[in-house]
Amino acid sequence: MRGLCTVVLVALFAILPASADEPVVRLVEFETTVNPITAKRITTAIKEAEEAGDELVLIRLDTPGGLVNSMEAIVKKMLDAEVPIVAWVGPAGAHAASAGFFLLIAADVAAMAPGTRTGAASTVTVGDSKEGDVHLKKSNEDLAALIRSIAKNRGRNVEACEKAVFAAKAYEEQVALEDKLIDLVAADKEELLRLLHGKEITRFDGSVVKLETEGARFVSSEFSFRQEFMEFLGNPSVAYLLLMFGLLGIYVEFTHPGVVFPGVAGALCLLLFAIAAQALPLSYVGILLILLAILMFILEIKVVSYGMLTIGGIVSLVIGSTMLFEGPIPELRVPFSLVLPASIVLAAVCALVVWLAVRAQRERVDTGREGMAGAVGSVTEELDPEGKVFVHGEIWDAVSKEGPIPKGAKIKVTRVDEMQLTVEPVDRR
Q: Which of 15, 282, 381, 382 has the most CB atoms less than 10 A away?
């Protein structure tokens, strides 16, 4: 019995060290645009990997790029990281364009899967940019200086990196490997770990680290509901729809005071839009054009324009919507396929609200003092010339300008003075 226990204990002690020494690779799935919200996916994962003592951080890239400021924040964190960073563009069909190219080059180890591409890292401006544009030239020179610095310290092809910035050059995986932009080509994460095992890499600070990835297990950072919700709001299409619903709710509340729900819902949507706008390249000109459109819809109620204000509002709404986000890539702008139907629907709803408001203004008032004129009632106390009448379920003081009216006779109200009615008989004889 003692011998059996000894064997079991020895086996346990043999297993525990191996389990404790099992290398951990923190995986970051980055399939989105680069903006202040999504940047936290990478920076948070690096921080957690450093605290947990992970073997390395593996960033799987499939991104069209994004904002320069956000890219620079990620690159800075990658270069200062205590844990090795591996960037892999995959699976087949994925790409790391524009800002994604900088993330790939900044990694300690850069890898791509067959059938992927990277590069095209020139600065993009919204609208027409003329040749020799000083602002564009300054932006490209600044980015080129950054990529040169990174490439030199990572031992990568500086000239090829510059072409990606100045000439918007793009590279497929084999060309990138031949031009020494990347270190490895791996079809999947498992193959990548096999190729990384035993590889010595030189960190950005000059230190040399040998990677141990055999038998490694993947872990992922758990993102909070707030992070997931913020990334959802950071979608330009979602933010745009929040703005449209918000303005519509406020508009309905403005034209129909006291409804309450549209105003509350509209204010909430506008608040969420304001939160989302902090992470998106918002254009204040676009906002002003959209607000101008709403103002035109409101003025349509007061001004007889024969529909011209509504047409002007629709045009202003469409132009403002297309200019709302000045993203450097299409993924950071509102697609026209959403702008046009959303603008038409908003304009149609506003027109309907205007029509209902105008119709309500033209209808005869049936309540209050204004609704008494023309009302029919009966005499409860003979009018000679003053007396009492029963109208709208109430007893009123009344006066007859056309002689006495006997009790029980039918009368019609012709005028309201304070709390006294002027009446006349319905059946004249």
A: 282
